[in-house]
Structures are given as structure tokens and as C-alpha cells.
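>> received
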Amino acid sequence: MEFTKVNELVREVLDSPRIETKKWKPFKLDDLFECETAEQQLKVEEIKDGFPYVSRSAFNNGITKFVKKIESKVNKANCITIGAEGYYAFFQEKDFMAGNKVYVIRNENLNKWNGLFICSLLNSIVGRYSYNDARILQKIKDEVHMLPVDQNGQPDWKYMEKYIRERERNFQEPDFSRLEKLPDEIKNSKKIYINEWKEFKLSNLFEISGTKTTKKDKLMHDGSFPYVTTRASNNGIDGYFDVWTEKGNCLTIDSAVLGWMNYQEENFTASDHVEKLTPNFELNKFIAMFICSIWNKTYAGKKYSYTTKASQRAIANDLISLPTNKRGQPDWKYMEDFVRERERDQKRVDESLANITKWNSFKIKEVFTNFYRGQNKAAKFKNKDGDVGLIAASGFNNGISYFANSDNAKISDFGSLTMSANGAGVGSTFFQKDKFIATNDCWVLENKKITKWNGLFLCFSINAVAKKQFAWTNKPSREKLLNTVILLPSKNNEPDWEKMEQMAKSKYEYFAKTLGIN
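>> returned
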């Protein structure tokens, strides 16, 4: 299994060596690497089994397609590439061609292993960049990164190589049997009993106030304090700086767009339209995650939107349903235990997935035989008394936003998945076991081999990529969708449908719980 694939599947390697950072020192990239713009070729002919073409993608090692080779436009291997609006660094082990605004950094000591080490450091700061503040060549040259050094105070290339090689060796002999040894169906998972819940006024749990507005252009120096904005992704964070105005361990709500709630663990600064909820109880990240999930499912993008702002007065009067103890008060310990348990479940599954044999990368268009956008005017079929789901831009409730009459429903011999193409739920993918109507706000992906089980597995794999890749400002066009790369178990270089079915059956409760379905 390639190390880059392992890096996608595993959050941490428990037995990896500790990094001793006392013997590190800062280096400016321009002093250490030859930094230049890659030889580019904009018009290319895409062919099967062609030459790798690197563009400004943040996925699949920056490779977006394979093209006809043009000798004069080839960039030599053994280098690191960075796309201006893709931000991420990738090590290129083979010669490649490149698109517009792709930058190359080289050093004669660079190889695959220390190259991966360097990439991990370069990728640790991508949060400081955005579409409007791209990672252009001059900014790359000016970046300063800490690197381990040898006794002469120079970058310790051998140490970096050894570190990555040791991590890679942990995955040389994957064993699928470990997955089977996990607790069946996560039987010990704590259940939520709705009848023991009670509604609480938000202002009785939190002190609700505004934050001090700090313009991003006033934040001059990089640091460790997050800059919180109205975005719904990445915990609302748009970079890290060296000052803060708000104390952490609180919740924030964007009052301009969706009314999305996030937990801020650290002290932070904030943009305009960020409201702050300071708890009058002992809050921690587990309780906060529980509260945020309930709030966002109830209010974000539903009661609140760009046209209906989540003002301080409005949210102060909102009610939130929470589990209670015997005294009828919020059961904070229950909430914390529930989230901790889910976190342990996910870690166990992630570690097991890393040891499954024969994983391959597949583009969406290689997995599904039919794909199309929903009906442009399907929303007209809305009927509150309808008997089939109307799939739109929702990231919840299996993608169902409304109901409609079954007379207008799609009936197909194919197994179907739907992906939200718009709104806050963009990228959210669901398996549709019943008849449905798809609106123009979603994509439909089909294959006759899809069943309830492997369909759930596909949803899990696609969501892991799509929710990071797509956003309201980067919606999944047809081309982006079909070229999205996911990791799947494979057999004879084809998706292993039987293995996906087997895995989903053995871990159904975990998959269903993670995907938010019943």
C-alpha cells in the first residue's frame, strides 16, 4: 500500500517514533530549495494510460488526468509541486506535465521519503491561504519552516527519510482479519433515548454576546490563534495569527449566512457577524460537539439563512433539545460519554481500514455507470403529505429536504446514491433505498451492482473526500465530480463490490451512525 494512501486512511500511527523537535531550526524555503514555476501546457489531449498531468488540485497527488506526452513540456521527477489555489504540496516520484500556476521546488538531497516529510510540513500551514489569497511562487519562497538539523546545523535529510520509512513499514503487511475482530455492530454503543430529552432555552445555558470584529488585513503575523469567520467549514477558521481578542472554550454562531454553530477550543479573533456563546456550566470539546450537532441539524440552514439572520436576540430565545438527568437538568456527562464513545469507534475502524488488503484509487466515473443532475423544476412537486422523498441540497436526513407525491418519483433498476451539489450540505452523499425525486440541487450516481450494503460503504468513502473537496464556493460540477478520486478495496484492479458488502455488513451500525441515517 502506498504511503500516500495510508496517509488518507489513518489519523495516526500508534507505534510511529516520536519526533524530537529540540534539534530543529527555521529555514526560508528560497534559501533551501530551487523554487520555480513548472513548465506548463494548458491545452492537452487526455488519453487512457497517458502521462500524468499535475494541476492546482488538492487531491490525488495533484494529478487530475493522464494526457498525451509532449517532450518539450515535461517536468522532471523527484520534486515537490504546489498549486496556487490548490495550496497543498505533493512529492512527484515520476516525470509529469503541468497546468497553469503549478510551482516546483527542488533540492539535490530530496527523495521520496524525505520529500513526504517536507510535504507534511508544507501542508500544515495551508489554512493561511484561500482562493483570494493564493499560494503563489513569491509567497512560497518567503515561507519559513522548522526542520530537523544535523550536527552541522543543516537539514537532517537522513533523519527525515528514516522517520518516513519507519512509518511506511507499519503498513507493509496489511491484514484484513483485524477488522473482523472489532466488536460486532459496536453493540456496546450508548443509545440515545429521545423520551428522556427536554427543551432548554439557549439563553439559560449561555451568555450570548457579539465578538470584537477584527479585519483580516489587520492581522499581520502568522501565529497559533485561529481567525473565526462566518464559514460553515473548517470550524469557521480562516487562518491563524499571533493575537487574540476572545477567550476560547466557547461556541460561536455565524449570524450572516447559515447560523452555523462551531466550538472554539482556543483563544481567537473573529470577523464580523460572529456571535459568541459563553457557557454558564463546565464545557469541554465533547459536550460542545454534541450541542453543535443538535443545533446545526435543527437550525442551521433551516430557520436561519442569508435572508433570515441568526441575531443575538433570535438565538437567545431558541430552544434546544438535550438529554436530561433524574433532576430534569442537562445530562452533561451522558453527552460527553456519548461523543467520546463515537470517537473511539471511529478510531478503531480507521485503524482497521488501514490494514485491509488491496486498496486502489478510483475516479467516480470509474465506479458508477450512470450519473446525472436532478430535475430543474422538481421542487414544484413539493407536497407536505407526499409519500416519497424530494432530494435537494440537504446534508442531513438522507438528503431529503421535502416530500412529494410518488406519481412523480424516479423508479430505476439501478442502485442509486445522491450527492448534494449546493448549499451548506454540498458534497454530502447518501444511499437511496426507496423511490425518490432528485432536484437540480443534487447529483445522482448509479450502478446496477449497488446494494444497500456496498452503497453505504461507497457513501462512507465518498463523504470522506467530497466534504473536504467541495464547498459552497467550490461546487461539484460534472467534471469535478466525475474526476473525484476515492479509495476502495479492489480486486483485479476493479472495485471489489463483495468486499465492500462484507465490510458494511460487519460494521453497519458504525457506517449508518457516521452517515446520519436510520
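>> The two ends are 34 Å apart (CA to CA).
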